[in-house]
Amino acid sequence: MSIDEIDRRGFYKDFHAYGDKLINQYMKIGDLELEVRNVPVVISGMGGSGAVGDIIRDFLYYSSPIEIIVNKSHELPSYIDDSYLLIAVSFSGNTRETLAVVEEALRRNMPVVAISTGGKLAEYSIKKKLPHVMIERAMAPRSGLPGLLAAALRVLEADLSHSYEKDVVEASRYLNYVIRAWKPIEGSKPWSLAEKVMGHIPIVYVPHNLTSLGMRAKAAFNENAKTFLYWDTYPEIYHNEVMTYQAEVMHKIKPIFVGGGDKSRFLYDLLSEKGLSPISIEYPSDVGRLAALLKMVLLFDLASIYLAVISGIDPYPVELINRIKEL
Ligand code: PA5
């Protein structure tokens, strides 16, 4: 059966266009003006929109001059005050949690910038005279990641008076390069990954400064393939989770090691001896942090889409999420 028979809307094509979308939206949005400079930020959003905050925090893990807090709820912690800038991200612009956070930020006199494709967030921004970055539509929030990310980076650039253009250009080129070999065909890397995890519960281990990848991989498998994926981080697992492998091993799980050093290799070998056939994925070391991270995000995004297709599941619809939004 061909991918187009299962993924009838051609959802996978949105992901294949990540590289172009990232650079096009970044260039189209252009330089932004903000009234604040060098202030710490709270990036708030849910699901596919919330992934933007995680990715930016990890991208700037070693280089951010400011504190970056990622918020994924309808509330703000008590210590957030008007010295922070709120970047509110909602693809649809209608997510209640994100709208509630904007209202709360205004109650605290925080500066706010909103990012969406329109919706109530755009309307509210006009009403309250808040800066709003309108991004282009994609088929779904999760496939709108490049546009959301481009917009949030532009906001950060204005806050920090620093350009991330080199990183964005490199990431875009790199994504366009890798996608050429990542088609929905047997033998391509994401397709092979999907085949290997088929019938298993993947457990992805990532370095502590790449939690965005674990979270995004989980969300992609949940929403696209409608299946579980769990994740954890090095070095924390060496202090707890490893013990589960000492005792009985469940053959329905598929450990996936992303990056890691000697300790992860030790664990990989141990699990191989126990017959678990773990997977090891090399983390790119020949490109900058944004390019490397987005390549890994795309790998898991595509693996989740291809897994859905192999399993005969349409990756696009997310009825239960939509039903719960109505409650
Ligand atoms: O990917 C999805 O469809 C969801 O995770 C949404 O991103 C989430 O429900 C929040 O909606 P929005 O991105 O429109 O704010």
| Low-pLDDT ranges | none
Strand residue percentage: 5-15%
Give the strand tally: 9
Question: Helices and strands, in N-to-C order?
Answer: HHHEHEEHEHEHHHEHEHEHEHH
Number of H- or I-type helical stretches = 14
Biggest sheet statistics: 5 strands, parallel
Terminal CA distance reads 37 Å
Shape: globular
Class computed from helices, strands and strand pairing: alpha/beta
Radius of gyration over alpha carbons?
20 Å
- Ligands and ions found: 5-phosphoarabinonic acid
Determine the fraction of residues in helical runs and give it as a percent range.
Answer: 40-55%
Keywords:
alpha/beta, 5-stranded parallel β-sheet, 4-stranded parallel β-sheet, 13% strand
